[in-house]
């Protein structure tokens, strides 16, 4: 299961040299995750309303080329792993339209209650992921 979303780099995301500040890639990972969850019909706001949170417990990012002011970038997000109380997403960030790789990374998330205690994955999310997997499996080019 993958999601792809695009955005244009704004001036505020860059340093004095017009290069994107490194931490903004983590914000783009978050955008990718949010759009992924929206695509499967379960926006993060709904997950939170049900009393669940997914804090980042580990992040990796390998930068290959710099993104610059006014670039259009594509964020590809894939659900890499689902555990009983964890999710792992992988990301690929590329410059459009030539698909130049800018960065790859991953985030691992714990599933916790409102009080911060680890809990099993919510049934609504498990069902949404299963439904999305079934739809992906039905597509011949998936």
How far do the termini sit from each other?
Answer: 8 Å
How large is the share of residues in beta strands?
Answer: 35-45%
Helix and strand element order: EHHEEEEEEH
Shape: globular
Biggest pleated-sheet summary: 5 strands, antiparallel
Helix content estimate: 25-40%
Computed structural class: alpha+beta
Q: Quickly count the helices.
A: 3
Low-confidence stretches: none
Strand order of the largest sheet: 1-4-5-6-3
pLDDT averaged over residues: 93
* Alpha carbon gyration radius: 16 Å
Tally the beta strands: 7
Report on the architecture of this protein.
The protein has 3 helices and 7 strands. It has helices at residues 24-39, 44-49, 123-138, and strands at residues 2-8, 52-53, 56-63, 72-82, 86-96, 100-110, 112-113. It is globular, with a radius of gyration of 16 Å.
Quick structural overview:
The protein has 142 residues and is an alpha+beta fold.
Write the layout of secondary structure elements.
Elements (H helix, E strand, L loop, with lengths): L1 E7 L15 H16 L4 H6 L2 E2 L2 E8 L8 E11 L3 E11 L3 E11 L1 E2 L9 H16 L4
Antiparallel strand pairs: 1-4, 2-7, 3-6, 4-5, 5-6
């Amino acid at each position: 299961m993958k999601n792809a979303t695009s955005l244009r780099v704004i001036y505020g995301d860059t340093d004095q040299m017009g290069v994107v500040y490194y931490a903004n890639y983590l914000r783009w990972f978050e955008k990718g995750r949010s759009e992924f969850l929206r695509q499967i019909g379960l926006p993060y706001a709904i997950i939170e309303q049900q009393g669940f949170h997914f804090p980042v417990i580990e992040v990796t990012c390998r930068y290959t080329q710099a993104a610059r002011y006014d670039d259009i970038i594509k964020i590809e997000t894939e659900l890499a792993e689902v555990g009983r109380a964890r999710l792992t997403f992988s990301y690929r960030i590329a410059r459009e339209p030539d698909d130049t790789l800018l960065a790859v990374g991953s985030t691992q998330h714990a599933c916790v209650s409102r009080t911060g205690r680890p809990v099993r994955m919510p049934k609504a999310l498990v069902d949404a992921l299963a439904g999305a997997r079934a739809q992906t499996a039905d597509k011949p080019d998936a």
